[in-house]
Amino acid sequence: MVKYIARRLLIMIPELWIITVIVFTLIQLSPGTFLDQYRLDPSISTETLKAMEKELGLDKPAVVQYFYWLGKLVRLDFGYSFYYRRPVVDLIAERLLGTFVLSLYSFVISWIIGVVLGIVSALKKYTATDKILTVVAFSGLALPVFFLALILLYVAARTGWFPIGGMYSPETSRMDVWSAFKDILWRLQLPGFALTFGSFAGLMRYQRGSLLDVMNEDYVEFARAKGMPERVVIYRHALRNAINPLITMFGGSLAGLLSGAVITETIFSWPGLGRLTYQALLQKDYYVVMASTVISTVLLVVGNLVGDILLAAVDPRIRYE
Amino acid sequence: MPKNEVIEKSEKYSAPKDEVVVRVENLKKYFPIYKGFLVKKHVEDVKAIDDISFEVKRGETFALVGESGCGKTTTARTMLRLTDPTDGRIEILGTDISNLSRNELLPFRRKMQIVFQNPIGSLNPRMTVGQILTEPMLFHKIVSNQQEANEKAVELLRMVGLKPFHMDRYPHQFSGGQKQRIAIARALSVNPEIIYLDEPTSALDVSVQAQIVNLLLDFQKRLGLTYIFISHNLALVRFISDNVGVMYLGRIVEMGDVNEVFDNPLHPYTKALLSASPIPDPAIEKKRKRIILTGNVPSPIIRPEGCFFHPRCPFRMEQCDKAYPEMKSVSENHQVACYLVDKREV
Predict the structure, then answer these.
(1) To probe the interface with B, which of A222, A224, A315 has the most B CB atoms within 10 Å?
(2) Number of A:B CB contacts under 8 A?
């Protein structure tokens, strides 16, 4: 098992390298550079532009730029942001908390609601409860996040029941810990809801489907023939066999915890990584985009690995060699 | 089939067995069909079992044969009360269990066990063989503690030809035949009197089938078990069972001693079934006339008027589409529901 994990982590290095090459190439291929906004400004002289280009390293060929960046990355230096003129690491560190708070909140709630409602829906198959839950789930799957987020924003603006964006209010820094916590929690509701509504629905349908599959198995039938109470049949025999697809999904969704929700964060002006990356993309702020790509990739690979390890831990049929 | 096994089977008959352990009377199981979005209307029924009766004596094997979808498995499931009967009586060891509550049923659940067709799906993949075997014993309090249960489980494994060290293995580590042995051991773990065998060998290799059948026959003789055997394999039915019921569209059309029914089939459907399975003798196989049925099995929702078999029957007569023929005895242990029988008597 240790060998298996080590091998998976080693494979990550070439994976990561290939992904950085692809992302870097794509950014280079897209039209425009960071300096274009200054070029359009008549008050900035050609000499200044030349100086800026040299300073930022944009005068060198793309290949050289890439290896320069890669060389620094190996030493865990993510480079400087063109726009903010600060180390990328500092920028990301600042935004990490915002993203983590929002994602974790939505993650925990959507998993609890998704799994519980999925079980309810499976056990009450084809009843009114199941049908109502199915309609809710499909609405969640069908509604694009940006649309739901805009509607929520509109409702918040019209009614004033919720703040229309941001993680902190102007007074946050003056509040005591408890009121600051309550304030952030309050501001978390709308973006949290927008994110949760889209993700719990999928989980719920997966849980429902896999539980229904297992409920038809003969060993569940045998447990019933034993005369076991239905509750024991479900929890001891059915549910334990129905969680495999969810564990795989769990591993996959771990990556989402720190990579940021671009659309939701942008619409609700939430100070998170997603918004930072989005803005950096628009401004051609290469190194911020690259850093955020590296983080997401590492998380995705590690998340999948965690999922696979969990699967082996709960299912005796799965062994990695 | 080897000769010594036939002898074993005939020895079985010498044991006294007059006690009726299973008696099914007018058993019906309808699955309702509802239509409508908000207000559900009961429109139709799928008549999976429609008025079947039979009895099985202690130590005997009663086989149910018929095409897929004729209600064999539903009969077993209903008799196990895995689904509630619509009407009729299910007498197990002298008690009608068709209306018993969950708790009242418990002692009978211990007396009845089931072995499924597919051994892969019938064992919980998350449990070790030890857990699979001890759970029923502990649940029915046949043993007082885990240690006693483990001892009994090891004994059961030995009985079905497996080894004590298999206790800690998981089902996926066994072959199909071994899994079916585990399933049989699990059924035996609670000292049952009646075992439902729902095509217990059809998912296995032919070589393994014979081993499992011999194992089942051996246990029947040693433990005096009563089997309800469901199968498509008519040769196997003849070999293993004492009495047979031929089912068509939820009803038993012919029933009786297996040799009598198979040697002298009276119902055209039984004749067709038997002629569909090959005879392992090329000389006879070449000479015999086969009855090829045309058309499909009618839907169990909208069944034909009169005898359900008449649209496909090669011997159809005038009265066949008027009323369903009654079950008549043609000998002490042979009954058939067909108008042809009256004609012969005239």
Answers:
(1) A222
(2) 56
Tell whether A189 and A131 lie within a shared domain. Answer: yes
A237 with A116, same domain: the answer is yes
Digitized pLDDT (tens) for each residue of chain A, 321 residues in all = 788 888 888 888 898 899 889 988 988 888 878 888 777 888 878 888 888 888 777 778 888 888 888 888 888 888 888 888 888 888 888 888 888 889 999 999 999 999 999 999 999 888 889 999 999 999 989 999 889 999 999 998 898 888 877 777 777 777 788 888 888 888 888 999 998 988 899 899 999 999 999 998 899 999 988 888 888 898 888 998 898 889 888 888 887 787 768 888 888 888 888 888 888 888 888 888 888 888 888 888 888 888 888 888 888 888 776
Spatial separation of the C-alpha atoms in residues A20 and A24, rounded to whole Å: 6
Nearest to B124 among A224, A225, A241 (CB): A241
Alpha helix (H) ranges present in chain A? 2-29, 36-39, 46-56, 62-74, 88-123, 128-142, 145-159, 177-215, 218-225, 230-232, 239-242, 244-254, 256-259, 262-267, 273-283, 286-314
Whether residue A46 is found in the same domain as residue A184: no
Identify the domain containing residue A10 by its residue range.
Answer: 2-74
Question: Comparing C-alpha atoms, which of B233, B192, B180 is closest to residue B72?
Answer: B233
Is ipTM over 0.85?
A: no
Pair A245, A267 in one domain: yes
Query: For chain A, how many structural domains are there in total?
Result: 2
A312 touches chain B (CB under 8 A): no
pLDDT reading at B3 higher than 70: no
Residue A131 touches chain B, beta carbons under 8 Å? no
For chain B, domain boundaries: 3-126+170-258
* Total-model pTM: 0.81
When CB atoms are compared, the residue of B106, B123, B126 closest to A240 is B126
Closest A-chain CA to B101 = A227
Contacting residues of A for B124, CB less than 8 Å apart: 219, 223, 237, 241
Say if A319 falls within a structural domain.
no
Cross-chain residue pair A316–B170, CB shorter than 8 Å: yes
Q: Domain containing A171 — which CATH number? A: 1.10.3720.10
Helices A273-283 and A88-123, packing angle to 10 deg: 130
Instruction: Specify the pairing of strand B194-198 against strand B226-230.
Output: parallel
Is A222 in Cβ contact with B126 (below 8 Å)? no
Q: Which pLDDT tens digit goes with each residue over B190-230? A: 999 999 999 998 888 888 899 999 999 999 999 999 999 99
DSSP B231: -
When CB atoms are compared, the residue of B109, B124, B128 closest to A225 is B109
The closest alpha carbon to B209, from B221, B224, B199, B198, belongs to B199
Of A219, A225, A229, the CB nearest to B124: A219
The answer to whether A213 faces chain B, any CB pair under 8 Å, is: no
Classify domain B3-126+170-258 at the CATH topology level. Answer: Rossmann fold (3.40.50)
Bridge partners of residue B27, in order along the sequence:
B52
In chain B, what residues touch A223 (CB-CB under 8 Å)? 124
